[in-house]
Design goal:
Number of strands: 2
Structural class: alpha+beta
Order of helices and strands: EEHH
Distance between the termini: 53 Å
Largest sheet: 2 strands, parallel
Radius of gyration: 16 Å
Strand content: 5-15%
Strand order of the largest sheet: 1-2
Length: 68
């Protein structure tokens, strides 16, 4: 049996509008992801052609790059 009380859980915060107030983050297990962080991560995965990311994000990425 696994005791969930003893397992550390990481949390990732993201917002597409506004900002996450970093002064409210008081744990090393809470990570703030900016839109630029997300974009760079998706770009790296898409360029590797070996990715497993949600279809909605793939469509978003391809839409952004279809105008280039």
């Amino acid at each position: 049996m696994v005791d969930d009380q003893k397992r550390k859980k990481e949390v990732y915060l993201f917002t597409s509008e506004g900002i996450v107030n970093k002064s409210n983050v008081q744990s090393d297990l809470i990570h703030i992801i900016t839109p630029n962080d997300l974009y760079r991560w998706v770009k790296a995965k898409m360029e590797s052609e070996n990715y497993l990311i949600p279809e909605g994000i793939v469509k978003w990425y391809k839409l952004i790059h279809s105008s280039e």
